Amino acid sequence: MTRYFTDREYGERPRTIDVIDERLWGGLHSLIDTRLGDGSFGYRFPEQCPDGYGPSGCDSQAFARMLRAEVPFVEWPVSHSELPETPAILDLLEFCATAVGQPIEGSYHSFFGHHHLSWDREAGLTRLVGDANLLFARNGVAYELTAEGRERRLLPQPLADALSWTQFTTGDAETDRLLEIARRRIALPKSENRVDALEKLWDAFERLKTLEPGADKRAQADALLDRAAAPGSNFRRVLADEAAALTKIGNGFRIRHSETTQEPLTSLDQVDYLFGRMFSFIRMVLRATGRGG
User: Fold this and answer.
1) Which of 13, 101, 249, 280 is the 20 to 30 A CA-CA neighbour of 176?
2) Beta bridge partners of residue 102, listed in sequence order
3) Which has more confidence, 160 or 50?
4) pTM of the shown model
5) How many Cα atoms within 13 Å fall on the side-chain side of residue 179?
6) Separation between Cα atoms, residue 59 and residue 134, nearest integer Å
7) Which residues are CB-neighbours of 159 under 8 A, at least 6 positions away?
């Protein structure tokens, strides 16, 4: 990836933005339009030479028809000045990644004034991925195309590292399942997935409270924290305060339930903040009690 002066001297811009704006869309539109023009998408949608000598470019009409069917949220052609919704743009880039190859010129056909083409799939995809990710990085957007051409959301690095390495061995299959769903869905771009990840994490928290022996849930939760930190210690009190605060958050906001008295979360930043806070607590307790982490 190209690194500009400001990246080298001041560090790369934090990747914290979840919405593609007009400026970034203009760059992505040009990236796609250029590949339509140079025949890169002929790898999947080849235009045949009228004389039958093989492919000579990209069949833009076939490209558009299939795009409209596979990505119905985008009406192609779309103007660089008409901003689609961010999920639709991400779908569009994934569609383009399935179609791209690096054009290789073969014999020249003088009558039609074109070269016959073949395509290097790996080189074309690598270049598309690199160009798209440069635009995402330079604009501070928290998405990237993988080497396989799939979009993924970038998490803050400390949380990403924790999610990558944490193992769930709570001894309860349902708790492990909820934690694994939360881990996978918080990294997905769609807001519904991230909200669901937060709900699953809070569900896992409530189940975690009941994994130790005890006469009731309160006694079981106390036994869990007693294993995580020495009873009577300051850190044990910190854990109790945090567990109480997280329980209050779950009851006061629309995370697990939808009563009219519960306040909805109003931004994905709030979702990410609460997910990070809860996940840190759960991971610490898992590690301290020999249940993974």
Assistant:
1) 249
2) 120
3) 160
4) 0.73
5) 29
6) 28
7) 275, 276, 279
